[in-house]
Amino acid sequence: MNVKNICLGALALSIVSGMAFAGALDEPDNMAPFFTDSSMKTMKPMAEFKTAFMAMPMEKQDTMKKECQDAAMSKPHAEFCANVQALGGAN
User: Fold this and answer.
1) How many whole angstroms separate alpha carbon 7 and alpha carbon 54?
2) pLDDT tens for each residue of 7-43
3) Neighbours of 77 (CB within 10 A)
4) What separation in angstroms does the CA of 43 have from each of 37, 38, 46, 82?
5) How far, in Å, CA of 74 to CA of 84, rounded?
6) Which residue, among 19, 34, 26, 20, has the nearest Cα to 87 in the 3D structure?
7) How many CB atoms lie within 10 A of CB 81?
8) Beta-carbon-side half-sphere exposure of residue 49 (alpha carbons within 13 Å)
9) Taking the complete model, does pTM exceed 0.85, yes or no?
10) Most buried one in 4, 25, 39, 56, CB count within 10 A?
11) CB under 8 Å to 51, separation ≥6 — which residues?
12) Dihedral of CA 39/70/66/53: which sign?
């Protein structure tokens, strides 16, 4: 019975705070500096990408590096993660 209550509580929490579990790569505010347009379809050249990445707090850089190492997270952000890897994103 206790396990059932824990599972139901976890499910309720995930439904209520669904966006809280989104990664840094899914946040438009985090990703916008790396794109040339508001639709975030065209990535900035590597020199500008590097400038934007290095301007971010180290904690956010580390989070993005970690997410780029996760196959499920990096797949929809392949071009971005390739640039992060080129900047030494593998820890």
Assistant:
1) 40
2) 556 555 555 444 445 788 999 999 999 999 989 999 9
3) 19
4) 8, 11, 9, 11
5) 11
6) 34
7) 21
8) 16
9) no
10) 25
11) none
12) negative
Determine the Cα–Cα distance for residues 4 and 85; give it in Å rounded to an integer. 42
DSSP codes of every residue in 16-69? HTGGGG--GGG-HHHHGGGBSSTT--SBPPHHHHHHHHHHS-HHHHHHHHHHHH
Backbone angles phi, psi at 80, to 5 degrees: -60, -50
Residue 24 burial (10 A CB sphere; 0-12, 13-18, 19+)? buried
Contact 68, 79 (CB under 8 A): no
Q: Which residue has the tokens 């824990």?
A: 6
Reading the block at residue 78, the tokens are 């392949």
